[in-house]
Recover the amino acids of this structure.
């Protein structure tokens, strides 16, 4: 029997083969924001523990959360929360059997960034207005 030559290529597709697309980027972003929500939720739990621990601990937690870095972390947490939610709604649309044509799929991925960014800014504007 003749020996068959193996091509020098990967056995399965990988990131060097695929061209980056909006749907691929948003899929990765959905996973990243989901992971970031774990860390942010730990910070919120720490804030709640400080509130339950007494006025001094709560004042310290408020000082940290009210600093520039603290507000930046809160802003990024709220963006991660809203981006993950919008990504979940995109997946819900797909679960309902809609949005599979290439153009709609790309538009849903592109707009999810802008919608979640806009919602984040809107939430912060409302929060500062109500404050």
């Amino acid at each position: 029997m003749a020996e068959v030559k193996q091509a020098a290529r990967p056995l399965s597709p990988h990131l060097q083969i695929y061209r980056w697309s909006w749907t691929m980027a948003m899929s990765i972003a959905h996973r990243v924001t989901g992971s970031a929500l774990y860390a942010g939720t730990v910070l919120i739990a720490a804030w709640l523990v400080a509130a339950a621990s007494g006025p001094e601990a709560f004042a310290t937690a408020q000082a940290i959360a009210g600093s520039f870095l603290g507000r930046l972390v809160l802003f990024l947490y709220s963006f991660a929360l809203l981006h993950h939610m919008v990504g979940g709604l995109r997946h819900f649309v797909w679960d309902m059997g809609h949005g599979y044509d290439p153009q709609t799929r790309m538009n849903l991925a592109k707009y999810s960034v802008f919608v979640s960014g806009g919602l984040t800014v809107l939430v912060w504007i409302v929060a500062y207005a109500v404050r």
